[in-house]
Design a protein that fits this description.
By secondary structure, the chain is an alpha+beta fold. The protein has a domain of 60 residues: Dodecin subunit-like (2-Layer Sandwich), CATH 3.30.1660. The chain is 26% helix and 29% strand. Strands 1, 2, 3 and 4 form a four-stranded antiparallel β-sheet that branches. A hairpin with a 4-residue loop joins β3 and β4. The longest helix has 13 residues. The chain is elongated. It starts with a strand and ends in an 8-residue tail after the last helix.
Length: 103
């Protein structure tokens, strides 16, 4: 399994947008698709401005992430398969609001 991180860089200022994309590229991020420029109305001034967006991914190797190939014990499919997971100790029930309160 190859884990990645995903982000979308967005800015109304193309210079700031370009600087941020270049910064992430320098840190090992890769472009995911193309850049998008969306014209958005500015209702206060009656003008239109452009919002720039670029999706980016950071491959697992660059992120230092490691995929776990095998678990020592498989996770249960549901709580029914692990009876002790359904039973909380008395202290746990009280902490979760299920216990009785004494005055």
């Amino acid at each position: 399994m190859d884990l990645t991180k995903y982000t979308v860089v967005t800015s109304d200022d193309f210079g700031v947008f370009e600087d941020r994309v270049n910064q992430l590229l320098g840190e090992g991020w890769k472009l995911q698709g193309g850049v998008t420029g969306t014209a958005l109305p500015d209702t206060k001034a009656g003008l239109v401005h452009v919002q720039w967006s670029q999706a980016m991914v950071l491959p697992a190797r660059a992120a230092g992430l490691e995929a776990v190939e095998a678990l020592e014990e498989p996770m249960p499919l549901d709580l029914e398969s692990e009876p002790e997971a359904r039973m909380l100790p008395d202290a746990g029930r009280a902490a979760q609001g299920g216990g009785s309160i004494t005055h």
